[in-house]
Amino acid sequence: MIDLHCHLLPGIDDGPETMEEALALAAHAVRSGIVRAVVTPHVHVGRYDNELVSIAADLARFRLELERRNIPLELGLGGEVRLGEEIISMVMEERIPYLGERDGYRIMLLELPHSHVPVGSDKFVAWLLKRNIRPMIAHPERNKGVHQDIDKITPFVSMGCWLQITAGSVAGNFGEPSRKRAVQLLERGWVTILASDAHNLEHRPPELEPGRRAAAAIVGEEGSWKLVRDTPLAIVDGGK
Ligand SMILES: [Fe+2]
After folding, report:
1. pLDDT (tens digit per residue) in 163-186
2. What's the gap in Å between 103 CA and the centre of ligand 1?
3. Neighbouring C-beta atoms of residue 168, cutoff 10 Å
4. 90: exposed, middle or buried (C-beta count within 10 Å: 0-12, 13-18, 19+)?
5. Cβ contacts of residue 132 below 8 Å, gap of 6+?
6. DSSP for 14-33?
7. Residues measured by CB to lie within 5 Å of ligand 1, the ion
8. Where are the beta strands (DSSP E) in the chain?
9. In sequence order, which residues have a C-beta less than 8 Å from that of residue 172 and are 6 or more positions away?
C-alpha cells in the first residue's frame, strides 16, 4: 500500500518529536503493509514554517537513518498545505511541495481549518486550478462544518478538487460523525484516496489496512485497492 498523507519526519511539526520515534513510525508502517509513503509535514505559515527546500533536507537525513536501520520504506516528498493567503506567494515562488502529478496537474494536499469551511476558499481553489494545481482536500470527513452539512464540500468536488479520507475515519477511530461522513463520501464515489495521516503510534498510527477493509464493504474489494494502492501510485508516478 502507498500512503500519501503522513507525518513521519521528526521535530518539524506535530508528528514525531525525535528520530527514534520517527523510525518507530516508519517500522510500524512497513509492518502494516505500507511500502511507500509521501511525507507531508504541515506547511502552515507562522505555525510550522516548513517549505520545499527545508523538507527536502529533513527528508534526506531521515532516508539515511532508514537505510542504516534497514527499514524498507520508500519515501517521497510532499506537504500538507494549510489554506491561507500566505500560500499564494509560496506557490508563485515554487516553495510548495506537491504530492505528485496527474493529467497535467500537480496535486496539492490542502488542509482546511478543522472547525469550518472558510468563506472564499472556493476562490483560492479556482486560483490554484487555473495554475494547473489540483487541490486534494485533506480529511474533509473530519471537518466540523462537513459534520453539520455534508454538502459544504460539494462545491469543491464540483470545481475539480479531489478528496483524501483518513483510513482511520472509515474504521471508526475518529468518532461516529467522521465515520458517517467518510462512508457517505465513499458511497457518492467522491473519495480519491485513503491515507493514514499518521502522527504517532498511539492515536494516529501509520496504518491503512483497517480502513481499506472497512471501505471494501462499501466500494468492493477492487475499489478499496484503488484507494490505497493504484490511485496513490498513479499520483506519485504521474509526472515520470
Ligand atoms: Fe495531516
Report:
1. 999 999 999 999 999 999 999 999
2. 25
3. 27
4. middle
5. 104, 105, 106
6. SS-SSHHHHHHHHHHHHHTT
7. 80, 197
8. 2-6, 36-39, 42-44, 48-49, 74-77, 80-82, 100-102, 105-111, 133-138, 162-166, 193-195
9. 179, 214
At 79 the pLDDT is 98
Q: Identify the pLDDT of residue 102.
A: 95
Confirm whether pTM is higher than 0.70: yes
- CATH number for position 145: 3.20.20.140
d(CA 113, CA 8): 21
Quote the ligand 1 centre to 163 CA distance (angstroms). 13
Q: Which amino acid is at 86?
A: E
Cα of 42 to ligand 1 centre, how many Å? 7
Q: 178 φ, ψ to 5°?
A: -70, -40
Separation of 79 CA from ligand 1 center, angstroms? 9
Number of domains the chain is built from: 1
Domain that holds residue 19: 2-237
How many angstroms separate the alpha carbon of residue 158 from the centre of ligand 1?
23
Distance (angstroms) between ligand 1 centre and the Cα of 223 equals: 24
How much distance in Å is there from the Cα of 32 to the middle of ligand 1? 19
pLDDT digits (tens, 9 = 90+) for 115-156: 999 988 999 999 999 999 999 999 999 999 999 999 999 999
